[in-house]
Amino acid sequence: MVRGVYYLVIELVQDLIVNVGRLGSLNLTKGTYVYVGSGKGSGGIYKRVLRHYSKSKKVFWHIDYLTVSNYVKVVNAVVVAENTLNESSLTMLVGIDECFKPVAEGFGCSDVRNDRTHLFKYICHHDVIDYLIRKLINFGVNPSLISLISD
Predict the structure, then answer these.
(1) Full domain range(s) for residue 131
(2) Distance separating alpha carbons of residues 59 and 30, to the nearest angstrom
(3) 3-state secondary structure of 72
(4) Residue 98 falls within a domain, yes or no?
(5) Radius of gyration for the chain, computed over Cα atoms and rounded to the nearest angstrom
(6) Could you report the per-residue pLDDT of 36-49, keeping only the tens digit for each?
(7) Structural contact between residues 40 and 4, judged by C-beta atoms closer than 8 angstroms
(8) How many structural domains are present in the chain?
(9) Is 23 domain-assigned?
């Protein structure tokens, strides 16, 4: 089983108000979002990423509140497998970039004390997938891409 970290790219096809457990109600505007996650548990990274593509699942993680919505499309996952990188490293890479706007303090990072959020809105105009892949390559890692059609 392969473990690692990933960027999940999702598209909100319209504005969305969603209740995210203890975080409360979030007002998200239409557009492209990037979520930072990890698959280091017993199922590994690929099982974790594949879970995001399903609309029919028990809502458990913060990101599940978004991915079960009919207004949210999971576009791709940029994966860094079998590496020493952690979620905080991936968060830092997008967190210091002007193309990514932090969204929802505490989202997806309740187990990572130093991170403010793991959800970012992509606000630039070039292709987000290419942009993330270039960032990771420049950081010295070799990412891969997982693309499926969500149900």
Answers:
(1) 4-146
(2) 22
(3) strand
(4) yes
(5) 14
(6) 999 988 889 999 99
(7) yes
(8) 1
(9) yes
Q: Which residue is associated with the tokens 């210091």?
A: 96
At 100-124, the pLDDT tens digits run: 999 998 898 877 778 899 999 999 9
DSSP state of 2: -
Q: What is the token pair recorded at 139?
A: 């950081």
Phi-psi region of 118 (alpha: psi -120 to 50; beta: other; left: phi over 0): alpha
Residue showing tokens 């890692």: 141
| Residue 151 belongs to a domain | no
* CA distance linking residue 143 with residue 127, whole number of Å: 16
Output DSSP code: residue 134.
Answer: H
The burial class, CB within 10 Å (0-12 / 13-18 / 19+), for 48 is buried
Mean pLDDT by 10 residues, the chain (151 residues): 94 96 93 95 90 93 95 96 86 96 88 87 96 96 82 51
Residue whose C-alpha is closest to residue 128's, from 55, 60, 78, 53? 78
